[in-house]
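Note to self: keep these together.
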Amino acid sequence: MRRWTTEEIDILKEEYGNRRIETLQMELNRSEQSILNKAVRLGITQKENGSWFTVTDFCEATGISRTTVQYWINECDFPAKKSKTIAKKYVRIYPDSFWIWAEENKHRIQWPEFPKYIFGKEPDWVDVARKAGKSKVGKRRPWTTWEISELKFLLNQEKYTYPEISEKLNRSQGALKRKIYDLNLPWPVYVNRTAVPPYTQEEIDKAIDLYKSGYPLAEVAKMIGRTEMGLRGKLERSGYRITGKKIIRE
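Structure:
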């Protein structure tokens, strides 16, 4: 194992928390784990400015636009505190407060694009949110001519259900329903509901937790072995309302 030089340690102390971990890997020619372990041993967790960020620092570090952050501050209770010195006024963003806010506002951040360890150690839920954000199921994209033709073909067979067509076209059942309605196409074959076992409270709780973690409803349904439309209906009957990427108990 290659020993850390004084120069490398100085760079780590200066830049850890200010720059993307990938950038430090290239500059130091070290693995991600090596950098994290060394930072822990040195007691480095945040920037040297007192563990807070200005809006400019935050935007440069995360790649999130200043306009977006300002909107969060004005409309979404983003935890930015105004401060001032004799020379100037500025806004402080404290990492601990940011993580608390981010957990309640997961849907506002593109987690797969959010730099790792930019604020030092991350809460466990962040890794889950990153994985959830990488799911392709449920992401909106334009319908192609081939997909529409394939949809018509599958429906004309009069033997495929919503889940089966969803799997074949990699489309959510909600997207299928909207497209079928728009094109005035015949509906898919419905599952015999009497053959479907009732939902357990454990399933409902797991579905809610997964959805709040950032997984699309279609992916959540697959993970618990249910259909998307069936799960949506069950949640609504249980007093939950799904709006965008949030689920609210009414």
